[in-house]
Amino acid sequence: xxxxxxxxxxxxxxxxxxxxxxxxxxxxxxxxxxxxxxxxxxxxxxxxxxxxxxxxxxxxxxxxxxxxxxxxxxxxxxxxxxxxxxxxxxxxxxxxxxxxxxxxxxxxxxxxxxxxxxxxxxxxxxxxxxxxxxxxxxxxxxxxxxxxxxxxxxxxxxxxxxxxxxxxxxxxxxxxxxxxxxxxxxxxxxxxxxxxxxxxxxxxxxxxxxxxxxxxxxxxxxxxxxxxxxxxxxxxxxxxxxxxxxxxxxxxxxxxxxxxxxxxxxxxxxxxxxxx
Length: 276
Prior knowledge:
43% of the residues lie in helices and 20% in strands. It is of the alpha/beta class. A 7-stranded mixed sheet has the order 3-2-1-4-5-7-6, sandwiched between helices. Helix 7 packs antiparallel against helix 10 and helix 9 runs antiparallel to helix 10 (248-262). The longest helix has 17 residues, at 226-242. The protein starts with 23 loop residues before the first helix and ends with a strand.
């Protein structure tokens, strides 16, 4: 499978419209690297981490999954591929990232190539629900997903978990970091989620766990990280508001995320589960 594999790429109308995905800042960073023959993780750290709390979150995932050299790991909603490259570099696993948005996938493929990841960290462009198991390297030992499933509607979420189970070897584990509803969400919060975060809605803890169990998973741990995430997103928003050189659209997105977490209605969770 070539590193820049593009299969069933979505039409523009299917791609979430949210300010995080305006890529001017990324292209500016890449322009500054174009003459450098080999890139390090530090070169792209300023934009290729699309989850919270940086490498600590990936290290937590690796511990929860019990990664071993040679394991195959699938990353759903892999973005610029930072998670896959980190896991390949530090744990010797082979990673395949599935990214819906073609422009982000292309950037991930460039970084994979320039960083020397080779076949150890691959990006595939397409809809996870439509891609064939073979293109995603199945069967896989583990699956990770960081801040992706919140963008998926309820019916598709059920299908996503079912397909994830099908791709895993028996006993394989899944690690998810995601939003969830801590309480009943009011219309203001729902509107902000839909319009600014491209999140159609969120299950509560019970609903989330039931969806995973129906897909054939045993939930091993549900770790509520709402407090630390609330602090993180608030500090991030404050820093961007103070920086007059910051991207205005990105600042708007960060403000929206800060708003929904500050409401107390939206929380963050780290979930580890195992295929039964």
